[in-house]
Structures are given as C-alpha cells and as structure tokens.
Amino acid sequence: MANINLELSLLRTLVAFADSGSFSLAAQLVGRTQPSVSMQMRRLADLAGNEIFERRGRHINLTDFGIKMALQARDMLTMHDRIVDDLRGSVVQNPIRIGIPDDYATIVLPRIMEHLDRLHPNAPMNITTSTSPKLNRLLESGDLDLAIVATASPEKRDVFIQRETIVWVSAPDHDVHRRNPLPLALFSDESPIYRATVAALPELKCPKGNVRDIDIRLRSGSWSVLTTAVTHGFAVATMAEAVVPPHLQIMREADGFPDIGHIDIVLRPTSDSQSVTTAKLIKEILKTFQSESHPV
C-alpha cells in the first residue's frame, strides 16, 4: 500500500469546518475561498479513501468517519504547532496586533486577553482602540492582524459576530431630548452609525408631531466623549444598544425618535496575513463574543 501524505493545510481546513459547521465560515478561518475549501475536502476524502461529509437536507455534516478524522487532525495540528513553537522558542516574539473600537473595549477586552493569554502565554500584544474606519485602514496597511469593526456592508472575509440595533440615548435627569432644535453629539462622519443617523434625521419629530430642527453640537470618534456629552445633558447621541451605559435612557419611536436601523459587528482579518497564529486568534475571539452575556 502506497504511503499517504496528509497535508497539514487539508487537516487545518477540516478542523475549521468542524469548529464552524460550514464551508463558508471554514473558508474565512483558513483564509481561502469557499470553492478552494471544497476542493481541499474532496482531495482529503480521496486520500482517506472514505466519505468525510454527508448531506442531510440542506445541511452538510461530518460523517462518523469525518468526526473521528477531525479529532485526530486536531491532535496532530496541536502537536505540530507545539513543535513549531519549540523551534521558535517558547515565547512568541512578534506582538499580536488587535484593533477594537473603544465602545466595545470594556465589554470584550478582558475576555480577549484571557483567551489570548491561554493561547500564547506571555505573548506581547499591541491593542489599538480607534474608530472602525481607522481600524480598517490599519488592517489594509498590514499594521493590524485583525480587528473588531462595525459595518453596514460586511465583506466576504468577515466573520459575523452580532447584529446591533442603533438607538438614540439621552440623560434621564435632563430635558435635552425635548429641545428644538435638538442638540446632537454624533460619531465622526466616516462611521456607519453616523451615516445611518443622518439618514434618519428627516423623520425626527417634535412632541407636537412637527419635523424637528437639528443642532449638531459635537462630532467625535470616541464613544467615551459622546457618552460624557449625553450624561451631562449637553446633547442626545446615537450608538449601538449593547454599549449604552445603564445610567442613560434609550429614546424610542413613541418619544418621537425614529428607527435608525442596525450595524453588523464583525471580526475582520488583515487581507495579506493568514498565519496559523491569526487563524487561532480569529477562532478564540469569536468564541469570546459568542460567550459574552452582553452580546456585541
């Protein structure tokens, strides 16, 4: 019987499917196109001489053989990566570079650090907090390995995390939300939240039902700045519902504030780096978001 050489890239894609449950998500995790992943899995099945996948209705699942193979592949990859780490030295030399908007930092950053410390003990990390548009530019220039960003139009490479409703917020102990013109504190004009808010402004109504005038008093890329402005009665702001502080109130359509829509929160890897480390980070951070009690 001829020797069979199971390429690590095939095994890594198989494990990515086992973790994600779909070819499209597996493709994102390993940095390949979906057709490329399908071809890889057909090649792996040919090499194994057995069926790895089976179709049940509209869904594709691992066969019993495929489940067993995925477990063995995971063990093999773990051993391989440990050997590589030993050859390079026990300490990861290159910083793990992650970008995150400041409004989500306090919610997810502690869990991200916990997971990364378990994955790469004592590894250096560079964590950049900025607006989603600026984080995108850092990804494209290769200055970040991956980032959590808000977007109105997810890209093919994105790993979807959560859809978030955009809401109006005001301070309950101030009457700023009743004023006309309405003072607003908004994200910078590159933000998808800003664009969605501006599109909704013509629907703003006064208590008597008339269209309300607008006074944009502040623009900032910082959620902390907007939250401070709202807290002190300086203006009304818009932000994702998950990051509204508990001391602020959300204004609804019954209060004359129209529906703004939503944004998608995604995990976005840099387009020119799909290392083993980056693939692991994508999976770990995705698990962090899925397990958060206050989803993003």
From TrEMBL:
InterPro entries in the record: LTTR, LysR_HTH_N, LysR_subst-bd, WH-like_DNA-bd_sf, WH_DNA-bd_sf
Q: Does the keyword GTP-binding apply?
A: no
Q: Which residues form the signal peptide?
A: none
Record keywords, A-Z: DNA-binding, Transcription, Transcription regulation
One GO molecular function term? Answer: DNA-binding transcription factor activity
Recorded hits in Gene3D superfamilies, A to Z, give: Periplasmic binding protein-like II, Winged helix-like DNA-binding domain superfamily/Winged helix DNA-binding domain
Which domain of life, per UniProt? Answer: Bacteria
Occurrences of domain HTH lysR-type (ranges): 6-63
Family of the protein in this entry: Belongs to the LysR transcriptional regulatory family.
Recorded protein name is LysR family transcriptional regulator
Q: Which organism is it from?
A: Sphingomonas alpina
The lineage is: Bacteria, Pseudomonadati, Pseudomonadota, Alphaproteobacteria, Sphingomonadales
